[in-house]
Amino acid sequence: MAFLADALSRVKPSATIAVSQKARELKAKGRDIIGLGAGEPDFDTPDNVKDAAVDAIRRGETKYTPVSGIPDLRKAISEKFKRENGLDYAPEQIIVGTGGKQILFNALMATLNAGDEVVIPAPYWVSYPEMVAICGGTAVFAETRLEDQFKLTAEALDAAITPKTKWLIFNSPSNPSGAAYSADELRAITDVLLRHPHVWILTDDMYEHLTYGDFEFTTPAQIEPKLYDRTLTMNGVSKAYAMTGWRIGYAGGPLELIKAMDLIQGQQTSGTNSIAQWAAVEALNGPQDFVVKNKKIFEARRDLVVSMLNQAAGISCPTPEGAFYVYPSCAGLIGKTAPSGKTIETDEDFVTELLETEGVAVVHGSAFGLGPNFRISYATSEALLEEACQRIQRFCAACK
Ligand SMILES: Cc1ncc(COP(=O)(O)O)c(C=O)c1O
Hints:
Order of helices and strands: HEHHEHEHEHEHEHEEHHHEHEEEH
Largest sheet: 7 strands, mixed
Helix content: 40-55%
Bound molecules: pyridoxal-5'-phosphate
Strand content: 5-15%
Strand order of the largest sheet: 2-8-7-6-5-3-4
Number of strands: 12
């Protein structure tokens, strides 16, 4: 009898963690490495949020909390959904979890039976297919194209849906491509879903506040209220408020689903960290100037990186609307010989050679289900980004 569960054989380790690990090892050996793999803002959590956490400790808010979250936070989230997204979720329709990750996981755990399919547009955040696999479901990938800025088309979505489809996981702005759907683009997706009443939408709005220029964020249940009864709107404070380590994510959805997720969480982690919940209340209710300021910083970085990458031989990089990632194609380098003498046959070869030759750590696109591409996280200083892009240009020019 095998000791480890069969489900484990379906789960891959995270490629993004593997790249960060490799970069750390090379750094420890004294190599000059620029890591562009991390998926978290390089800013510190705002002081008002930290102060709220300290106050919570001093007030003694250090006990177990209700499984779905403290009433103050569920109220703050309910008001946030109304204020920013025009969505009516009563506090009972809201659940707070240990990061957006736990919310997604518990939603899938609460709903998937063996054989149920989950449509995931590719490129996708690395955890979606693995979570689906752990929960016993089957991931069905709907490919996107660089020409469409990596956005799912109505046709591709329609073709991926079968009678077994339970969910579409929809992520805008996207990790890894940064693509964000305009209201019209989203409408094309919601129109398809209206024709398939058995399909639910798990919308991951984690990067909502990181959009640039005059782009206006919208979410599926806002665009198409007829989908409200089969949408779980997931969000969190990790990316918008530089709170990745605090582990607070949340969702609003139909009461029955929220209750099912509460049941699972009650036997798993129970209520999320009490102090972090009070910090999240302040993040959502307090001043929002932190978000506005950082958007500007990220936008300048995005523009720098896109412009410099498009000057690298063999690289083509669309300008994404949001998040802090770009997802350039390295198709023009495939088949060429790297300075080491190795032939670049895949995007994984490309990122390996780039790391070995120039010390720039990025993640290969095949890890996100679509290549030959690579993902750069621009959540680091402009000076480092400029240096990294110069190295990428030099590497590409040296490939013959
Ligand atoms: C698209 C997406 N969804 C969800 C998460 C998870 O967020 P959290 O750190 O709150 O668990 C991430 C984090 O990288 C992400 O990129």
